[in-house]
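Here is one such protein, fold included:

. . .
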Amino acid sequence: MSTTLNGQILGRTHYAARAVLERELGRLGLTFAQALLLNALAAADAPLPRVEAARRLVDALKVSTATAHATLAELIAATLVAPLPTDASRVAMTPTGRHTQQLVAAASAEIGARLWADLSADDLAAAVRVLEVVRRRAEQTLAAA
């Protein structure tokens, strides 16, 4: 029996893998959105304007700007992120936030290695190509709406 690639298969795969990650995030006291925002701040490797940090979460998770700013406020309240003392419109990870993000990255890498362990490089490359095309098309559809 063959399976047809469709939105249901993609969604079920995403939610199953995300549930595995969220179990680890829960142990760290984080939500999925908070982890994504910490990752965005780590990738920037420099303080970001609050609006830019929120925009990166909006782009990654497709949430509202208000939700993204609320997530940023949660990270600030948890002292994982802080406004710059000289410019409160910009934020950066605190040392605790950086350490927490490193734990998230390690957990994510371990989960990925376990889930993709026996898949060939060719299969993984093909999956990336297909998923990137689908993602770009979906984002174009959202942008056109």
